[in-house]
Amino acid sequence: MEQKLKLWFTEHQTEDYGITFRVNHVYESEQTEFQRLEMVETDEFGTMLLLDGMVMTTDRDEFVYHEMVAHVPLFTHPNPKSVLVVGGGDGGVIREVLKHPSVEKAVLVEIDGKVIEYSKKYLPNIAGGLDDARVEVIVGDGFMHIAEAVNEYDVIMVDSTEPVGPAVNLFTKGFYSGISKALKEDGIFVAQSDNPWFTPELIRDVQRDVKEIFPITKLYIANVPTYPSGLWTFTIGSKKHDPLAVAPERFHEIETKYYTPELHTAAFALPKFVKDLTI
């Protein structure tokens, strides 16, 4: 009988709390130019991408995050043709973006090329869309790409890590102002904004900063088991279109595992302690 590898990995989500996985195999473990990158195999969640000791995505639950980042803004916008994804080198958000036939071009700007390389190799079900003809992949600084873009995108999605390391600048008011400039006159953006249990002040700060720039600013939630606390938030900023006023005929059928038109609305129904962070 084959004995399992007795190697356990713990992501310390706070100083006093962590989530632990048994690791069966380590495919890659490398200090890239920007961060510590590991690609490992687990029984419980399959292949797992770790950056600086934090779980970024897994085979088993990746669809929740990627679907909710992509489909909420894309169904809110009446005709999204040009889409930018900042970060997200694993390709999961791009995969979901490409399910929308109106999208003519999707640009991915990922600062760490190793994330793209290893995701294509070990997470093909997530990264497969990166080779699509509609996709332009840029290995570079998303902050600078935004700063140089003017009236270029219908939808911008910020698929970043937590605000540490290379992602620090992606949680600043200046970055949100740059996003507004890079968007067209009826553009929409969405960013992951962490969890309300361990980082409530981060959510409060993001909501405050985005509200000063976008007339329609809302918070929505999803359940991602491998992220801290499992309860994850997303902040959407829109110049014109309200995600809670999408006409029923705008929803078209796509293949999903988590997102539905009904959930599109329900995700904005917040527990009171989370809603209080938006005031």
TrEMBL record:
Pfam family of the protein (one): Spermine_synt_N
All copies of domain PABS, residue ranges: 6-239
EC number per UniProt: 2.5.1.16
Enzyme class: transferase
Bilayer-spanning residue ranges: none
HAMAP family named in the record: Spermidine_synth
Stored PANTHER family: SPERMIDINE SYNTHASE, SPERMIDINE/SPERMINE SYNTHASE
Protein name: Polyamine aminopropyltransferase
Species: Exiguobacterium sibiricum (strain DSM 17290 / CCUG 55495 / CIP 109462 / JCM 13490 / 255-15)
Higher taxonomy: Bacteria, Bacillati, Bacillota, Bacilli, Bacillales
